[in-house]
């Protein structure tokens, strides 16, 4: 019977089966009879040889070698509050450098509320929100922010940078897709990196380029509808871009959201407390229903003159961050005195909405004044509170351009006008912006201040950019 079965298999089996089986049998025979590999005898070092080798060994540097006096470590030291007037390196200056847009940093009402909170709660919290770090003043601030922004709920973070950097990876994971503007700020970029999602960049404020990417993704989804059903897609933009000082085309973005079924995350650190009749940001500026935006984030370190940040939106969206927002779950909560200061700043914003119109007019005035400076190009829109002055003609070297602009900043500083260079981590930035001087406008600046700054910037540009 066995002989018949073998003969039957041999006759009926395909030829390639027989060849494959023959090769496997030969390989097994070779393995069985091949010689085992033997390690060569190792040479044992003497104690003296070991000591010599250890002495000769040089470890690789932990970080790149820098010069003894690197320019980025030469800090300008501030003494006193960085408000309308600022003292830098012992010299009193008009402040065109701090993001104190509404002039609330040194406001007496805000300081008194912070001081009363300091006496009541102490300096800090020494614990995250989930571990005895939630104070009644935190809950009050979240409630007030949600009410101010006309959303269901808000969540606060103790560090502005960590707000959007924590929010993005809380929702978008590996396998999801994020469409991002090339001019997105560094905190957004770190959030993208932490999410491990597929990132697709579109040209700055170019809705045609964004729609091209969305159409391409739609075609990909049609090829694999099963995967498309579980893949989340997001658009991440800034309301008012810190690196370009221009506003996002939000109405067109909302149209694309519904057309291609994606979610919108809106970062409003530069537009919150600045744009809109009541300072609610770019949604109010364009008259967009805030419910059309899936998540809004902003820091409280600019218009509110406090520390930290917040996200707001629908309750089920915000509550998810309380369990998965890394900056919320693992950082000590916001010091109560800073939360109290932010609440009082909101009170002032609600009591006097005219301050937003005043700020807008000041921005337009400074924008007009800064045009036509020889050798410098003004970047931004008329109602942006933080504008950029870039070189009209680059030297071809980023370091040289930075040095030229630094010389202009130093020239103005010596004469009592505080400006600042826009700083970037060039090796970390996906699309590093050109070097620039940042000029920040606040409601406290007078016509005399603006003319003084303009005069010295023009003098410096004429002397240095020949």
UniProtKB/TrEMBL annotation:
Pfam families hit by this protein: Aminotran_1_2
SUPFAM superfamilies per UniProt: PLP-dependent transferases (SSF53383)
EC number: 2.3.1.50
Listed transmembrane segments: 15-33, 154-172
Named cofactor requirement(s): pyridoxal 5'-phosphate
Function: Component of the serine palmitoyltransferase multisubunit enzyme (SPT) that catalyzes the initial and rate-limiting step in sphingolipid biosynthesis by condensing L-serine and activated acyl-CoA (most commonly palmitoyl-CoA) to form long-chain bases. The SPT complex is also composed of SPTLC2 or SPTLC3 and SPTSSA or SPTSSB. Within this complex, the heterodimer with SPTLC2 or SPTLC3 forms the catalytic core. The composition of the serine palmitoyltransferase (SPT) complex determines the substrate preference.
UniProt name for this protein: Serine palmitoyltransferase 1
Gene designation: SPTLC1
């Amino acid at each position: 019977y066995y002989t018949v079965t073998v003969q039957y298999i041999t006759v009926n089996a395909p030829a390639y089966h027989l060849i494959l089986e023959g090769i496997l049998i030969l390989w097994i025979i070779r393995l069985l009879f091949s010689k085992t590999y033997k390690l060569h005898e190792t040479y044992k070092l003497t104690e003296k040889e070991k000591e010599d080798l250890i002495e000769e060994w040089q470890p690789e540097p932990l970080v790149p070698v820098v010069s003894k006096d690197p320019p980025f470590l030469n800090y300008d030291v501030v003494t006193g509050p960085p408000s309308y007037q600022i003292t830098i390196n012992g010299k009193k200056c008009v402040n065109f450098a701090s993001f104190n847009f509404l002039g609330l940093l040194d406001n007496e009402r805000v300081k008194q509320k912070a001081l009363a909170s300091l006496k009541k709660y102490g300096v800090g919290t020494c614990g995250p929100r989930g571990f005895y770090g939630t104070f009644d003043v935190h809950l009050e601030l979240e409630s007030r922010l949600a009410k101010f922004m006309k959303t269901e709920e808000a969540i606060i973070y103790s560090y502005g940078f960590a707000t959007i950097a924590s929010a993005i990876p809380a929702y978008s994971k590996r396998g999801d897709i994020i469409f991002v503007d090339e001019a997105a700020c560094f905190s957004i970029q770190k959030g993208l990196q932490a999410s491990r999602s597929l990132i697709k960049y579109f040209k700055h404020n170019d809705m045609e380029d964004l729609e091209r990417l969305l159409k391409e993704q739609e075609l990909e989804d049609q090829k694999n509808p099963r995967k498309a059903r579980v893949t989340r897609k997001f658009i991440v933009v800034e309301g008012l871009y810190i690196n370009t000082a221009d506003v996002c085309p939000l109405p067109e973005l909302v149209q694309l959201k519904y057309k291609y079924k994606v979610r919108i995350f809106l970062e409003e650190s530069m537009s919150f407390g600045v744009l809109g009749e009541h300072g609610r940001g770019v949604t109010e500026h364009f008259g967009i229903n805030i419910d059309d935006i899936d998540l809004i984030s902003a820091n409280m370190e600019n218009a509110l003159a406090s520390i930290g940040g917040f996200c707001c939106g629908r309750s089920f969206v915000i509550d998810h961050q309380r369990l998965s927002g890394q900056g919320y779950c693992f950082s000590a909560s916001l010091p109560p005195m800073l939360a109290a200061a932010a609440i009082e700043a909101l009170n002032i914003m609600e009591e006097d909405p005219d301050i937003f119109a005043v700020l807008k007019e000041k921005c337009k005035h400074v924008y007009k004044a800064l045009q036509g400076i020889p050798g410098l190009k003004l970047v931004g829109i008329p109602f942006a509170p933080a504008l950029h002055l870039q070189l009209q003609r680059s030297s071809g070297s980023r370091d040289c351009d930075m040095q030229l602009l630094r010389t202009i900043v130093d020239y103005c500083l010596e004469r009592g006008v505080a400006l600042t260079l826009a700083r970037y981590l060039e090796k970390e930035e996906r699309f590093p912006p050109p070097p620039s001087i940042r000029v920040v406008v606040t409601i406290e600046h007078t016509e005399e201040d603006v003319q003084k700054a303009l005069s010295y910037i023009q003098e410096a540009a004429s002397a240095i950019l020949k």
